[in-house]
Amino acid sequence: MATKYTTPHEVTAYECDVNGTMKLATMIAVAIQVSEEQSNQLNRGADFVQQFGLTWIVTNYQLFMQRLPKAGETVYVTTQAQEYNKYFCYRHFWITTQAGEELVRIETIFALMNVETRKMSSVPNEIIAPYESEKITKIKRYPKIEKVKNGTSLPFRVRFYDIDGNQHVNNSIYFNWMMDVLGYDFLTKHVPAYMNIRFDKEVEYGNEIDSHYEIIQAETLQTRHEIRIGEQTYCEALIEWQEKK
Amino acid sequence: MATKYTTPHEVTAYECDVNGTMKLATMIAVAIQVSEEQSNQLNRGADFVQQFGLTWIVTNYQLFMQRLPKAGETVYVTTQAQEYNKYFCYRHFWITTQAGEELVRIETIFALMNVETRKMSSVPNEIIAPYESEKITKIKRYPKIEKVKNGTSLPFRVRFYDIDGNQHVNNSIYFNWMMDVLGYDFLTKHVPAYMNIRFDKEVEYGNEIDSHYEIIQAETLQTRHEIRIGEQTYCEALIEWQEKK
After folding, report:
1. What is the ipTM of this complex?
2. Within this chain, do residues A102 and A164 fall inside the same structural domain, yes or no?
3. Keywords, A to Z (chains A, B) (predicted)?
4. Which of B25, B33, B159 has the CB atom closest to A161's CB atom?
């Protein structure tokens, strides 16, 4: 059974939006922080991984949201490296209440990238062993994300504070770019229940991206998203929404 | 002697910029959070203040920065309501290391605003008494901020995630708008040592602001900043910089 790591997190007002619930961007940043804490505890922190000329990237997230954490609430963030194959590591996160109720489950696909070549690397046993996750041969894929067909878009310039210590645009920033375009009325009348997001290419400081979106009334209310520079897609997502109660 | 309140804060990677030190915006958000915690502890939280039809605003900040908190470091954030007069409350914050070394001192001027009329209100004794700060008659002013004379600017659209639970653009966002325009090279080669910022008017969701700035090589390296919409100034600041070691 793979090692689990749990840490409490007090949700502050500044981590929340006008609805008083946690910004998805912050939730993702906190989750990644917790996985870094686990890695440090297992002596597999960024420095260790860097000895191999590698760095972790996250290529996909699926979020299953029962309820978003609220300002003032203390939640527990648990992470576990579930399985891995030659190139991909499958890690889960759970955000739960003090009473153990699951609020959000986040499934992620991590990969290792060569810092110099920016190419994916196979996963060295020395890096992965301490997590005690199961080795599998299967490649797991999340559901395919449909393209934005009749979308509109808004431009976003990559800002200095969007880039993190690794000189990359932090993953969490893409969540803000995608959701902001939906506007105040939409974002105060709906809550996200499911999100599937896939990172294809790295956006860099100095880029200006277009955040394309399309609202689809299917069985559920859905929004489809693409972060593009010109015709090139850098990141794509599907979000399923519920009416806010 | 006015009541002091201290809380530890673990500086996470996502609170830091590419330099590995805490974003000023986050430092301000954390400070405000700590003052809210003190208010809650004294039963003078937002709900209590709202009974008077009022809400707190911060009109001025002065930051004295010896060294910015680093990712992974645990710092202590202390706050104390120092003095107040009819309209203004003077509150200090100190960010210190575990060993008690002062990293940052933040001086602030708070005022109470009527939620309906958006006008300033005098400070009711019922609200201020528990902080045990000293009543003074003098109005304290921070140094005058010189205008931007030969500046350049970049536009910023107010985004959904820039507004907080009070429907305002969070104060911390202005810090990002002001500093982002200085660019990667400047912001990775210099560290702020002093900042004096004054909030004149509220920017609202849907606005597009221009972040004007000018670099002045005086006795110290200074940058002057103005957030404007058209000819109207909403916020102004002076920052003094040192070469990054």
Report:
1. 0.92
2. no
3. Fatty acid biosynthesis, Fatty acid metabolism, Hydrolase, Lipid biosynthesis, Lipid metabolism, Transit peptide
4. B25
Query: Are A12 and B33 in contact (CB < 8 Å)?
Result: yes
B146: left (phi over 0), alpha (psi -120 to 50) or beta: beta
From first CA to last CA, the distance across chain A in angstroms is 39
Which of A16, A160, A204 is the best mutation test for B, with the most CBs of B within 10 A? A160
Strand, coil or helix: B3: coil
Parallel/antiparallel/unpaired status of strands A74-84 and A134-135: parallel
Tell me whether residue A172 is in a domain.
Answer: yes
Quick one: CA dihedral B211, B214, B219, B220, positive or negative? positive
**How far is residue A199's CA from residue B143's CA, in Å, rounded to a whole number?**
47
State which residues form the domain around B222.
Answer: 152-243
Contact assignment for B159 to A180 by CB distance below 8 Å = yes
Beta bridge partners of B191: B242
Tokens for B95? 């960010």
| CATH number, domain containing residue A219 | 3.10.129.10
Task: Report helix angle A171-180 to A24-41, nearest 10.
Answer: 170
Cβ within 8 Å, pair B160-A32: no
Residue A205, chain B, CB below 8 Å: the answer is: yes
Tokens 């910023």 belong to B156
Residues A71-115: pLDDT tens digits? 999 999 999 999 999 999 999 999 999 999 999 999 999 999 999
Using CA coordinates, name the residue in chain A closest to B175: A161
Q: Find, among B164, B157, B192, the residue nearest to B67 by Cα.
A: B192
pLDDT of residue B92: 98
Q: B223 φ, ψ to 5°? A: -125, 140
